User: Which sequence fits this backbone?
């Protein structure tokens, strides 16, 4: 069981900014092009607010939001926000290394957070994206996991995305005890059945993890650079840890995860939240 959760909110939002949707009003287009995805207003409040509400209900105590170097808008939205007075919300900064234009990836973000809050190197914490709305159920499953390191393994059949979009997700391979064996990015659709688990289900990662800082920090520190994306990514650090026979447990889950990647998602999520 952990009381800590780290939210990755420092990415460049490149796909959001490049995407086009003619149904979006000008003020929403401006938000999408200028703000971090978690700050885009949906249903009258920032998207990240909905995730924080679920984090509060799941009884986490400490929230660390990793932002880029301009964190002021995040601080204005969530620092001393009365809706989250029972959460200890703190901010960490992912600095862009000299010579780069964009952040250095999710593993680098988490590494910089643990340097800023070194006590996290000695304890457990969850990690998730700021642009996915993980359910209360999902957060509680991970928070209360029996293992100190785990990953939520989503049943691909319950994700309400297009086939093209699902094809971009990483699939996971487990043994019969649900120890994680591999994370495979963009597998060949013709070979997808090679990754089924003992229940004949394909499991995908939605980037929500439980880590033990005592084990994981050195793998963040020594994370290799992805050869194509030129970033240090959490799955790379995670796979290096697994190669050293450190167990990561898969926790199966069968539900959809609302996701904010492109301007089209803003239209769909606006409808979703207005129904709530």
Assistant:
């Amino acid at each position: 069981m952990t009381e800590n959760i780290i939210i990755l909110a420092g990415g460049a939002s490149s796909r959001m900014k490049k995407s086009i949707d003619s149904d979006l009003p000008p003020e929403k287009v401006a938000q999408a092009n200028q703000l971090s995805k978690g700050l885009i207003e949906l249903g009258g409040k920032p998207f990240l607010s909905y995730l924080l509400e679920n984090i509060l209900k799941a009884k986490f105590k400490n929230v660390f939001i990793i932002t880029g170097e301009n964190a002021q808008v995040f601080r204005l939205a969530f620092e001393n926000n009365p809706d989250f007075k029972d959460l200890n919300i703190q901010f960490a900064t992912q600095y862009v290394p000299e010579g780069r234009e964009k952040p250095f990836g999710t593993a680098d973000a988490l590494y910089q957070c643990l340097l800023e809050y070194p006590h996290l190197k000695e304890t457990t914490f969850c990690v998730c994206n700021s642009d996915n709305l993980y359910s209360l159920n999902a957060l509680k499953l991970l928070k209360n996991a029996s293992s100190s390191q785990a990953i939520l393994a989503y049943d691909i059949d319950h994700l309400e995305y297009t086939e093209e979009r699902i094809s971009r997700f990483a699939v996971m391979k487990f043994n019969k005890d649900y120890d994680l064996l591999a994370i495979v990015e963009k597998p060949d659709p013709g070979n997808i059945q090679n990754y089924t688990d003992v229940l004949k289900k394909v499991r995908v990662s939605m980037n929500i993890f439980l880590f033990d800082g005592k084990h994981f920090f050195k793998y963040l520190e020594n994370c290799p650079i992805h050869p194509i994306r030129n970033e240090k990514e959490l799955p790379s650090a995670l796979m290096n840890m697994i190669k050293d026979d450190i167990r990561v447990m898969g926790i199966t889950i069968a539900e959809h995860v609302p996701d904010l990647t492109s301007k089209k998602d803003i239209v769909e999520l606006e409808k979703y939240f207005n129904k709530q």
Observations:
- The first helix runs from residue 14 to 18.
